[in-house]
């Protein structure tokens, strides 16, 4: 049984998510219902447990994936693909000049991990979740202003690190982007106390003076606490702690934040000229080249904010006038989110990528992940699953799934094979072939009762995976609404993707024999 719910609909007896990440804050720190938090510890607990618990879950999931030595790349791709909006944002960033200057097209999350790197994609996923959570309300003009500054600083910091030939430029971008997470979170969720702080700042008090008088702590300390709590990376914590032994990444972030704040007063102020000279010395280029670099980066920062779903934030980033010679280049837009309808162009791009990976000798896990993504995003199914026979061939076991309630589907997809006539799975492995199920489509003489109990699909299809002509598993895909059938075009595309794994298995077997 669950306990009574609070005004936001949460159960009063609900356990805290991931208690091992608690930062030593006592259980009662968040304060009783109806009382706003008091002190730094309560604010950390309040934001973590009541306002942004989904972020804690995302961070914990990403950390679990990165620590998995068996197949972290595939699991990271699956974690991102479960969220259609996140998928679209990651792909936009993967195709941006910022992350992909060579402009090689990236159509899949699997490819994004190859092009950008595993850690970069993992950090982007966390940053996307943070930005999503902070675009929900509060004192919006303060939230948006803070966010505009961090996006600008993040792009400038990454460029500065790259000019210094520092290999952590992607990590620098994320650390700069999240370096004011406490400030943004407070303006978003601070309620009446945020209004009081807003009034104090509007009355002319300095940031530090207003924060100490209204809160009793500095918002920078809140950023420190949340960064530790969510384990947002050692570089971010080093920046926030103000390490006396700052390296190039920390210096790049500090310089970028100074520039992002100063340029809000205009691109032609004496203070900015002095700062540009300092940045030029740091980067090892002329002041003229530095100013041109900064102008280009400001344009890119506005675009990157849009890719994170924060277009209104991009509008606030100070950009030079057209007279400064900076042109905003046109860029191909990715779809906002998978539509669950067939996309022939995406199918073709993914099939080409699969063929290239097979020819290059990629491992089967990579091919499987691409096929799953092709069926899910390209062919357009609500759920897709890959299952293998057990070594004794007496069980079919779901291994990986994408889509709504994917993990529940995977866990339920376990079927014994005992040779019972007419049963779908027994008949399938006796005579492997592609089949579809739904009104008027289920093959005669085939019983799908066990599939219905496990998956409850309105319309579904399966296709075999063959090794030297012998079935070793299958792909399953479904559409969960009765009105959404599996037409011939979708069914044929599903089979084509499934066949790629059989081709990859054959290629791998031939390679081993020839070796």
TrEMBL record:
Signal peptide: none annotated. Residues 52-246 form the HDOD domain. PROSITE patterns: HDOD (PS51833). Pfam families: GAF, HDOD. It comes from the Bacteria. SMART domains: GAF. PANTHER family: PTHR33525, RIBONUCLEASE Y (PTHR33525:SF3). This is HDOD domain-containing protein. It comes from Aromatoleum petrolei.
């Amino acid at each position: 049984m669950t306990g009574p719910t609070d005004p936001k609909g949460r159960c009063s007896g609900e356990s805290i998510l991931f208690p091992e990440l608690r930062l030593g804050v006592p259980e009662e720190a968040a304060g009783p219902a109806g009382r706003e938090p008091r002190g730094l510890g309560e604010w950390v607990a309040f934001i973590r447990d009541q306002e942004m618990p989904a972020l804690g879950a995302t961070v914990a999931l990403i950390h679990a994936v990165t620590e998995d030595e068996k197949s972290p790349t595939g699991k990271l791709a699956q974690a991102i693909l479960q969220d259609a909006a996140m998928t679209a944002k990651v792909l936009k960033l993967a195709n941006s000049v910022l992350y992909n200057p060579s402009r090689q097209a990236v159509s899949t999350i699997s490819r994004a991990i190859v092009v950008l790197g595993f850690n970069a994609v993992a950090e982007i996923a966390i940053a996307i979740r943070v930005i999503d959570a902070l675009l929900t309300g509060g004192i919006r003009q303060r939230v948006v202003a803070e966010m505009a500054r961090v996006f600008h600083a993040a792009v400038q910091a990454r460029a500065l690190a790259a000019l210094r030939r520092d290999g952590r430029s992607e990590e620098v971008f994320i650390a700069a982007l999240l370096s004011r997470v406490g400030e943004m979170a407070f303006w978003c969720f601070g309620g009446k106390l945020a209004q009081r702080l807003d009034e104090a700042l509007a009355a002319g008090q300095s940031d530090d003076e207003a924060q100490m008088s209204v809160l009793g702590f500095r918002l920078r300390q809140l950023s420190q606490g949340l960064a530790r709590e969510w384990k947002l990376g050692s570089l971010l914590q080093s920046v926030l702690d103000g390490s006396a032994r700052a390296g190039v990444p920390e210096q790049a972030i500090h310089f970028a934040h100074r520039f992002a704040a100063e340029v809000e007063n205009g691109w032609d102020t004496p203070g900015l000229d002095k700062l540009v000279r300092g940045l030029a010395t740091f980067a090892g280029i002329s002041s003229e080249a530095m100013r041109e670099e900064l102008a280009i980066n400001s344009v890119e920062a506005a675009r990157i904010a849009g890719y994170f779903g924060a277009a209104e934030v991009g509008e606030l980033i100070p950009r030079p006038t057209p007279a400064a010679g900076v042109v905003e280049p046109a860029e191909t837009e990715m779809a906002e989110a998978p539509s669950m309808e067939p996309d022939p162009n995406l199918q073709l791009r993914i099939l080409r990528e699969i063929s290239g990976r097979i020819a290059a000798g990629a491992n089967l896990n990579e091919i499987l992940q691409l096929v799953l993504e092709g069926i899910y995003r390209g062919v357009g199914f609500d759920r897709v699953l890959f299952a293998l026979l057990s070594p004794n061939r007496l069980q079919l076991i779901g291994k990986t799934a994408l889509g709504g309630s994917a993990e529940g589907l995977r866990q339920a997809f376990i079927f014994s094979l005992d040779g019972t006539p007419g049963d779908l799975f027994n008949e399938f492995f006796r005579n492997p072939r592609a089949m579809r199920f739904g009104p008027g489509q289920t093959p005669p003489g085939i019983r799908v009762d066990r599939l219905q109990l496990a998956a409850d699909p309105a319309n579904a299809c399966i296709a075999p995976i063959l090794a030297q002509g012998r079935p070793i598993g299958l792909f399953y895909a479904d559409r969960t609404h009765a009105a959404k059938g599996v037409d011939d075009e979708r069914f044929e595309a599903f089979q084509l993707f499934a066949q790629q794994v059989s081709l990859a298995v054959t290629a791998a077997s031939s390679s081993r024999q020839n070796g």
